[in-house]
């Protein structure tokens, strides 16, 4: 299927590895010019070089910096001032017990996983409306739908973003600008392994044992891959997805047990 976005420009946050990189690669494969951001300059440079080699006909720009800071956002928007596609993504806050979290911990989580996406939407959505095309995808978490107790910081911040988008997305769709969220369940990423390491420390069990148990508990019997996550993201960014907005799409291998 031709997704109809060849030649468009995308800003993909936190895209040096994991799900963000999967999205950047899927968009580049469709002929989209991609600006990639990440805090780690070395990993970002390597990821950008790999995409340039794989997709020589598209422009790949890399911007090292922290997208959760005003300076990081300014640098990213200077490199890609009028994206047609915005993929909001930032590393999730650490797991733990809410009794141990300070106000500063909460502010940091809200800044990274709620306020930063809102700032980037604010900076780009009006130009999308003027051009009569825009696709915004927020990478949140399956915890938005089924909260995970040790990820309370993430549960709260990402649910706040979801509530904000629920209203805005109904206003922009008339102009062919959609805003949706992808809710990843267990994917084979550094984030998943980091959470398992924390659980291992608390329980005394080996991290690999925890990962294997979680894999076997999933109806799919495996973890998801960044490539299949990227494919779902690319479709939401396509010309065929203009009637989908304000939605929160689970990609979890069937882990959520509900009907809706």
Strand content: 5-15%
- The mean pLDDT is 95
Total number of domains = 1
CATH topology: Rossmann fold
**Which class in CATH terms?**
Alpha Beta
Helix-and-strand structural type: alpha/beta
Distance between the termini: 28 Å
Largest sheet: 7 strands, parallel
What is the subunit organization of this protein? single chain
Give the C-alpha Rg.
18 Å
CATH homologous superfamily? NAD(P)-binding Rossmann-like Domain
Count of discrete alpha- or pi-helical segments spanning 4 or more residues: 8
- Which parts are unreliable, with pLDDT below 50 for 5 consecutive residues or more? none
Shape: globular
Number of strands: 7
Helix content: 40-55%
Question: How is this structure best described in words?
Answer:
The protein has 260 residues and is an alpha/beta fold. It has one domain: Rossmann fold, CATH 3.40.50. Helices cover 47% and strands 14% of the residues. It has helices spanning 18-29, 41-54, 70-79, 103-131, 152-172, 190-203, 207-217, 226-236; strands at 9-12, 33-38, 60-64, 85-88, 134-139, 177-184, 248-251. The chain has a seven-stranded parallel β-sheet with strand order 3-2-1-4-5-6-7, sandwiched between helices. The radius of gyration is 18 Å and the shape is globular. It holds the Pfam family adh_short_C2. This is 3-oxoacyl-acyl carrier protein reductase. Belongs to the short-chain dehydrogenases/reductases (SDR) family. InterPro entries: NAD(P)-bd_dom_sf, SDR, SDR_fam.
């Amino acid at each position: 299927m031709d997704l109809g976005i060849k030649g468009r420009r995308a800003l993909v946050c936190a895209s040096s590895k994991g799900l963000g990189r999967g999205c950047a690669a899927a968009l580049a494969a469709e002929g989209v010019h991609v600006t990639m951001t990440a805090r780690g300059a070395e990993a970002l440079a390597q990821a950008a070089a790999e995409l340039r080699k794989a997709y020589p006909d598209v422009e790949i720009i890399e911007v090292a910096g922290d997208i959760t800071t005003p300076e990081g956002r300014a640098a990213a928007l200077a490199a890609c001032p009028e994206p047609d596609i915005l993929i909001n993504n930032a590393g999730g806050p650490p797991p733990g017990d809410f009794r141990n979290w300070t106000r500063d911990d909460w502010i940091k989580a809200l800044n990274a996983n709620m306020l930063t996406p809102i700032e980037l939407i604010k900076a780009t959505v009006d130009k999308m409306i003027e051009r009569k095309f825009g696709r915004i995808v927020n990478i949140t978490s399956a915890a938005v739908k089924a909260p995970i107790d040790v990820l309370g910081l993430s549960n709260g911040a990402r649910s706040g973003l979801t509530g904000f988008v629920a209203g805005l997305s109904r206003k922009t769709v008339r102009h062919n600008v959609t805003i949706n969220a992808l809710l990843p369940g267990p994917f084979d990423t550094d984030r998943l392994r980091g959470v398992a390491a924390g659980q291992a420390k608390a329980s005394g069990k080996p991290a690999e044992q925890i990962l294997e148990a979680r894999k076997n508990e999933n109806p799919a019997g495996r973890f998801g891959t960044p490539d299949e996550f990227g494919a779902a993201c690319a479709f939401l960014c396509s010309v065929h997805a203009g009637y989908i907005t304000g939605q929160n799409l689970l990609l979890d291998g069937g882990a959520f047990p509900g009907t809706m």
